[in-house]
UniProtKB/TrEMBL annotation:
<dbReference type="GO" id="GO:0045271">
    <property type="term" value="C:respiratory chain complex I"/>
</dbReference>
<dbReference type="GO" id="GO:0032981">
    <property type="term" value="P:mitochondrial respiratory chain complex I assembly"/>
</dbReference>
<dbReference type="GO" id="GO:0005739">
    <property type="term" value="C:mitochondrion"/>
</dbReference>
<comment type="similarity">
    <text>Belongs to the complex I NDUFA12 subunit family.</text>
</comment>
<dbReference type="InterPro" id="IPR052618">
    <property type="entry name" value="ComplexI_NDUFA12"/>
</dbReference>
<dbReference type="Pfam" id="PF05071">
    <property type="entry name" value="NDUFA12"/>
</dbReference>
<protein>
    <submittedName>
        <fullName>Uncharacterized protein</fullName>
    </submittedName>
</protein>
<feature type="compositionally biased region" description="Low complexity">
    <location>
        <begin position="119"/>
        <end position="137"/>
    </location>
</feature>
<dbReference type="InterPro" id="IPR007763">
    <property type="entry name" value="NDUFA12"/>
</dbReference>
<feature type="region of interest" description="Disordered">
    <location>
        <begin position="119"/>
        <end position="171"/>
    </location>
</feature>
Length: 171
């Protein structure tokens, strides 16, 4: 239906002598960016299922009048930057997966060291005297159990707080 209306509008404009829209460019998804009578708009490649969220930000800025139309060089540079970013993301994900497997192999359980920084986990599991074995056992019990952690010393609801009245303990 949309293409029929576009053809009909183009035919009427041609017959009346009014210039039609000017094609400014296309994006990688096949969307066509047009300008006519001071208006900028896009004809989506998938007219039945348009998705404005998939329009490149450079073209979105052009549609809003915030920048000139992107050049082919700018579009190519942006695509290259995206490819580089995807590659870096993949490398980081692979490194993190490898480190997770190494940690599991080293400590025997993914759950035993969940949320603990690597040095703390190593100190907590050391039984060779490098770390206090009593503390190592306590750290592992806290991680392995679902019991709440002991209070940190803060108590009260704060209802009796008065600004300027509290001073830290001087030791």
């Amino acid at each position: 239906m949309s293409s029929f209306l576009a053809r009909a509008t183009a035919a009427i404009r041609a017959r009346v002598g009014v210039a039609g829209p000017t094609t400014v460019g296309r994006d990688a998804a096949g969307n066509v960016f047009l300008e006519a009578d001071g208006r900028r708009y896009v004809e989506f490649a998938e007219a039945d299922n348009p998705d404005p969220t998939q329009v490149d930000p450079m073209w979105q800025m052009w549609l809003r009048g915030n920048r000139p139309a992107p050049t082919p060089d700018e579009i190519a540079a942006r695509e290259e930057a995206r490819a580089t970013m995807r590659k870096r993301i993949k490398e980081v994900q692979e490194r993190e997966a490898r480190e997770a497997l190494e940690t599991i192999a080293e400590f025997g359980s993914e759950h035993a060291v969940a949320g603990m920084p690597r040095p703390a986990a190593a100190a907590a599991t050391a039984a060779d005297g490098a770390a206090d074995p009593k503390m190592a056992g306590e750290a592992m019990r806290r991680v392995d159990s679902d019991a709440p952690l002991p209070p940190t010393g803060a108590s009260g609801t704060g209802d009796d707080f008065q600004p300027g009245k509290w001073t830290p303990n001087k030791t």
